Amino acid sequence: MNLYRITILSIGNEVLSGDTLNTNAAWLAARCVSLGALVVEQRTVPDHVPTIVEALADLRERCDMVITTGGLGPTHDDCTIAALIELFGDHLVLDEPTLAHLEQYAIERGRDPNSERLRSQALVPSTSQVLPNPLGTAPGLYFEPTTGAAVIVLPGVPREMKLIMEQSGFERIAAAMERRECDVVAERVLLTAGVPESELADRIEPIRRQLPSTVELAFLPSALSVRLRLRAVGKRAEVRRILDDAVSLLAPALGSAMLSDRDERLVDVLHRKCIAHGKTLAVAESCTGGMLGAEITSVPGSSSYFLGGLICYADAVKIHFGGVRPETLAQYGAVSQQTVEELARYVRAAYGSDIAVAISGIAGPSGGSDEKPVGTIWIALADERGVDARRFAFGTDRETNRVRACAAAMLMIIERLRACDG
Amino acid sequence: MNLYRITILSIGNEVLSGDTLNTNAAWLAARCVSLGALVVEQRTVPDHVPTIVEALADLRERCDMVITTGGLGPTHDDCTIAALIELFGDHLVLDEPTLAHLEQYAIERGRDPNSERLRSQALVPSTSQVLPNPLGTAPGLYFEPTTGAAVIVLPGVPREMKLIMEQSGFERIAAAMERRECDVVAERVLLTAGVPESELADRIEPIRRQLPSTVELAFLPSALSVRLRLRAVGKRAEVRRILDDAVSLLAPALGSAMLSDRDERLVDVLHRKCIAHGKTLAVAESCTGGMLGAEITSVPGSSSYFLGGLICYADAVKIHFGGVRPETLAQYGAVSQQTVEELARYVRAAYGSDIAVAISGIAGPSGGSDEKPVGTIWIALADERGVDARRFAFGTDRETNRVRACAAAMLMIIERLRACDG
Fold this sequence. Notes:
Two copies of one chain form a homodimer.
Chain A: E1 5-11, H1 13-16, H2 23-34, E2 38-45, H3 49-60, E3 65-69, H4 80-88, E4 92-94, H5 96-108, H6 116-119, E5 123-125, E6 129-131, E7 140-143, E8 150-154, H7 158-179, E9 184-193, H8 197-210, E10 216-222, E11 225-234, H9 236-254, E12 258-260, H10 266-277, E13 281-285, H11 291-296, E14 306-311, H12 315-322, H13 326-332, H14 337-351, E15 355-361, E16 376-383, E17 386-393, H15 398-420
Helix pairs in contact in A: 2-7, 3-4, 8-9, 10-15
């Protein structure tokens, strides 16, 4: 296979020592894959010239392009440029357009446009092409030596890095793949829920055997859902067809477990279905404390169906603003079927939503009992057909329990809306 | 310096292709650093035996210990064990305690305790020590060859990986550091807010020059706050003292910008101060949709001061449950000083909290105007002294704006409570 191989080199002590989560590498990898390229390695090294030079030299042996992030700032510990100069036996030249941008940038922010620290950012290796950085001071760089792997050099600030790639980085990768008439790695991602990974695997095993050997299947589990990724390698048009055929084979086997065939998250499906059915939504959140509302409103346009709701963390709030009767709390407790049902019914009526969900649980680490261990979560859904409550038994980790509770609530809403699909 | 050098090898196509964020490497790195070890490289490679063998051999040359995650499952694409067998010229043996655990594990979950797939997880390399995995089926492994770097092998599931390290992994690293009487990398992290990174740097520049050259300073910016990390290398007792002295030098220069000297997040400081002052809290969230409540309740024990509040995403909810007058919305709009002030006042009175904050803004990407561009956020804080509202102008990214709005609200609460500190 004639694939375009990419490696990603993250430079900097913040990522290396775990101070910063390496979201840059994940974003770059996912975007390179979506271009049809193959990511063959990710590496993180410290801000240390000899180490960077060695890593760059080694990685260039293993791929067609190295993408680096970090170490481009104006401070003493930024030494990526120095490493590139040494690697390519290059020297620095002043880039006038970059200098002009830097002066403009400084003036707009009321800083000194003539500071040495600022101007130093306009010095770039003579053999590099500048990839402009509209959002910051450190420009991206592109090296295309006559022999060996190309190199894209990016700042570590995510929004700067991303915009540089969007505006001038990815097109260089795409162009190189064109020139070499590369095969591509294509993929489709199916979102499933309600069926554990192992059972899912058994279900589709017969189909799996029918699939062309070129189609690679992977299960990507997350809170209460499993993303099923199909990947194939070949000529662009051809692999698209192969994957479409594979999806139409798998869909019947997955049945109702398949929520989406377009690489959506649970919240995207919820969003789409609420809009499609014209149903409005309200929530009452105890142990999740607003996490479900935050998740739903993370999607632009959610205001067309999400009204809001109640964060009823304290029992007094459940009583005075959630319509829970004091006797209910006294008799059954805050984490009970009765409590979430009263919450869901009341919030639906009061907020005038088509659907209301209520969540109350013991997230942990403390507050558990033999009868209601940590991880016990009650969720109720109320709509015009009445109220339906379910008990969930999750694990011991507080955040995991909260995330799963939100996923479970979204699933209950999605299932209810699918029922309307008839 | 006689430091203990660690490298982290992440194995798996999910991380490599950006499907999964590599939180394991960040967590392992941070924890190793907190033990006093030095993380010298992180690497991610695919589920491919020759590639894993080559990476392991190369990394072992560069450190005292390699920690690997991933590729230990029972499916065909899990091949980390095969790579270790090849690397060490080892062979598989059945580990009885692991087999017993697996059978118990299967029975508890109503699965077949005799399935081949399950039993295969009890086959481990003969030269490895098993690091038990109470939460899953793939045990961790520890290799301590007579020569060269040791290797810790972990599953990729974060909660399993973490528990194995907590229970039996980190103690092996600590023991090795003891045996070699290693120097340690020690650090202190100061949380600052309200002062941009560059200004912070200027402020402490004079002190920085007074600090021993062994103290390394780093600025770690996040939403509206900057973490200032001090790091020093040497004998444990000695570096602790050096860092304590450095902190007492820096604290006065940072002044009120310093919120904490114990590596806390904004929400941790909020938590501590609410408890210290015995103040209760309620929220009214529009554009953040519950994110502030979710953040506050992410801290165990927040129920001692956080009552809950209102997710007033729709205007009707602001009016009927947030005490906002229709005329106010009509005249000033939902994103206005008047609206957030009415929300904060009403929620404080209705919920009976000491402090209430209200957030309303234009998170984007759409909904902006010349007068109120995307990123315009109004936040009001009400307490017994009245109500205080501020307008913030953030950027264009929806999630960033929401995260910053929550940080700004937490900062307003913290500042108010510090004022009480007198």
